[in-house]
Amino acid sequence: MGPNAYAATCPTRLVLDRIADKWAVLVLGLLLDGPVRFNQLRRTIEGVSQKMLSQTLKSLERDDLVTRKAIATVPVTVEYSITSLGKTLAVTVDSLRIWAEAHMESVQDAQQRYDARKAAGL
Amino acid sequence: MGPNAYAATCPTRLVLDRIADKWAVLVLGLLLDGPVRFNQLRRTIEGVSQKMLSQTLKSLERDDLVTRKAIATVPVTVEYSITSLGKTLAVTVDSLRIWAEAHMESVQDAQQRYDARKAAGL
DNA sequence: CAGAATCCAGCTCGATACTG
DNA sequence: CAGTATCGAGCTGGATTCTG
What we know:
The structure is a homodimer.
Chain A: H1 11-19, H2 22-31, E1 36-37, H3 38-44, H4 50-62, E2 66-71, E3 77-82, H5 84-119
Antiparallel strand pairs in A: 1-3, 2-3
Chain A binds a DNA duplex through residues 37-39, 42, 49-52, 54-55, 70, 73-78.
């Protein structure tokens, strides 16, 4: 890494900021299976508020990770799809899922040991 | 993915929560080159407050991603090292860095186009 | 040197109400 | 159905001060 690798503008920081948004990751994962409508997403993703979902979709669209298609029915329906760019990100994030499934148990064990040590008065 | 894949307890969410902390990622990356002392980290990582660094190191240690070693000099010096578990995570996060370097320019272009469209009155 | 503790400004996010 | 607008509680994180 170069001397400015720890500056706020490095590309890695920008992706991390993006996937730091858990709703964004969940939306991308869901859309891998095909287009989904707004309220359908809302119902599927446990715990999203309508505000957060709306916000998340807007910024995913801004990043060209997701496309929005309004269909002129009455009332209007809106369909969200993942883009090819979005797919490449979703695939990459999947490597984190794999790491998690392989190692998160170790991490949680470590946390318990740490907490137990602290509780024992250090 | 199973029916509960979108619940808050899935392992993927836990890793994402971890690497959502930008300081944690930067610390892990730095420690790949070898052990570093507290204030050395503080000086190298542009923009960390002492509070955040301290907090980050503590939780990285709790997760067994980093180890802390106090050396009884006067005044005391403390050395942080990455663990083997930490290395596996750092390597995985690197795939995100690669994605970022390959695609973040497209994303930023998309953002500009999106903003321009909005500024043009939609 | 390596922190812990306190205080507080700012942002996030959920809840609620309203719209085309 | 698919959102927008507004308000307020709560958490986050910087600045500052103090310690072994």
